[in-house]
Design goal:
There is one protein chain. This protein is of the alpha/beta class and 437 residues long. It has 3 domains: 180 residues, FAD/NAD(P)-binding domain, CATH 3.50.50.60; 88 residues, Orthogonal Bundle (protoporphyrinogen ix oxidase, domain 3), CATH 1.10.3110; 107 residues, Polyamine Oxidase, Chain A, domain 2 (Alpha-Beta Complex), CATH 3.90.660. It has 12 helices and 19 strands. A hairpin with a 2-residue loop joins strand 6 and strand 7. The two termini are 23 Å apart.
Length: 437
């Protein structure tokens, strides 16, 4: 008799697991989603004016052939392809991304400080992320961009974060290359895995998972929130009173919430060491045509609350009601270490756009849509304690036939992209069933 496999969460990871089960012809499974929609942090929403909004600045790129094949199957040719045009807005000027490769755009004094810092770098042993920044980039780049921008994103003390998550997330420096960029007045913008990316023509990022829904909807239950988990009896209790039994559980809900709902007191201390931030996404729709060809912009300075802004209407004309409209999407992070007064975020965002020169004060009259999304769990923070906490929690759960994966189920930011998460769901199923390609 087939084991009953239950999946908690219909985000990229949970849907990836469900799709793989369907692909393999396995029939004894069910997926439960607390929301009345699928996609998790990769969902999209359409407002009353006709603007589409994502939960942050998602772009579609991949490290995996399986993911690429699935995207082609789902979207076919219904996507736009873009060459990344990303910038940093700093000192009232535009610096191409990555910042450290393009410091020639800074005022002379600040560019000189950054170069001096680079020349004095020492790849020594370091103990935390803040020390890593100083050792790899020097005082100038740390002062003007790397430290303030990361403080804005993570909303967590950098000295309490590790650095072993970085990998391809941060472009490390080549001093000779940067010096040549300065002297030869050369742009250096091609770094990174998302230099080329795709985006659905209609429906935002969430369109991918709405199309994936067709393959799994017969075994999907929406608006099904988990109230309690008994890992010994292998049973879930939903908030509506329904009891759900399983043999194997694939969990994608945040790991700290899982430990709490399962009343695993032996893991409560470790779960308490897992930290996350939250992000407020403000979408602003303007009744005017686009005035920039940029993709997204980073903001390290304190003259705006947001750390990133996306020219969302540039991703696809389907994101706006017509070509007469433009949409901007801004992300502001906060956490228990750095609280934020949420009720003012829309007006703070508009003020930040004016302060940084993205819009003029008189442009406010063109705003026809204001849309707010709150992502309570946005970034799993790679704290110094994270790996030891996961080293206790994950083996314990695996012994109980619980496979916890995905952005917050695995709690690893470095493996938290859309493609990573979907593949974690697929790989969990392969491990459970002993499947191979």
């Amino acid at each position: 008799m087939e084991n009953r496999i239950v999946i908690i969460g219909a985000g990229p990871c949970g849907l990836g697991a469900a799709y793989r089960l369907q692909e393999l012809g396995y029939t004894n499974w069910q997926i439960y989603e607390r929301n009345n929609y699928v996609g998790g942090l990769s969902a999209s929403f359409k407002d009353d004016v006709g603007f589409t909004w994502d939960i942050g600045g998602h772009v579609l790129f991949s490290h995996f052939e399986y993911f690429d094949r699935l995207i082609e199957k789902l979207l076919k040719n219904d996507y736009k392809e873009h060459e990344r045009r990303a910038y940093i807005r700093i000192m009232d000027r535009w610096v191409p991304y990555p910042f450290q490769n393009n410091i020639r755009y800074l005022p002379v004094q600040q560019a000189w400080e950054c170069l001096l810092g680079l020349l004095g770098t020492n790849p020594r042993e370091v103990g935390n992320f803040r020390e890593w920044i100083m050792a790899r980039f020097g005082k100038g780049i740390a002062k003007y961009f790397m430290s303030p921008h990361n403080e804005k994103i993570w909303s967590h003390p950098l000295e309490e974060m590790s650095y072993n998550w970085i990998g391809e997330r941060v472009s490390v420096v080549n001093v000779r290359r940067i010096l040549a960029n300065c002297l030869l007045r050369r742009d250096d913008i091609s770094w990174g895995p998302n230099n080329m990316f795709r985006f659905p023509r209609v429906g935002g990022t969430g369109e991918i998972f709405r199309r994936l829904l067709a393959y799994v909807k017969e075994r999907l239950v929406l608006s099904a929130d988990v109230a309690r988990i008994d890992v010994n009896r292998k049973e879930l209790a939903l908030t509506n009173g329904t009891k759900v039994s399983y043999d194997v559980l694939i969990n994608t809900m945040p790991l700290d919430r899982f430990v709490t709902l399962a009343a695993l007191e032996e893991l409560s201390k470790a779960a308490g060491q897992l930290k996350h931030n939250s992000v407020l996404i403000v979408g602003l729709g303007f009744k005017r045509s686009a005035s920039s060809d940029k993709c997204w912009v980073y903001f390290p300075e304190n003259n705006s609350p947001f750390y990133r802004m996306t020219y969302f209407s540039n991703y696809s004309p389907g994101n706006v009601p017509s070509s007469d409209y433009t949409s901007l999407m801004c992300e502001t992070a906060y956490s228990e270490s750095k609280p934020y007064k949420k009720d003012s975020v829309i007006e703070d965002t508009i003020a930040g756009l004016i302060n940084t020169g993205i819009i003029a004060a008189e442009d406010k009259k063109y705003i026809v849509s204001k849309y707010l999304i709150e992502a309570d769990y946005a970034y799993p923070i790679p704290t110094l304690e994270r790996d030891s906490a996961l080293g206790l929690i994950q083996p314990f759960l695996k012994e109980k036939d619980v496979y916890s994966c995905g952005r917050f189920g695995a709690w690893k930011y470095e493996a938290g992209n859309m493609d990573h998460c979907l593949m974690q769901g697929k790989e969990a199923v392969d491990e459970i069933l002993g499947a191979t390609e």
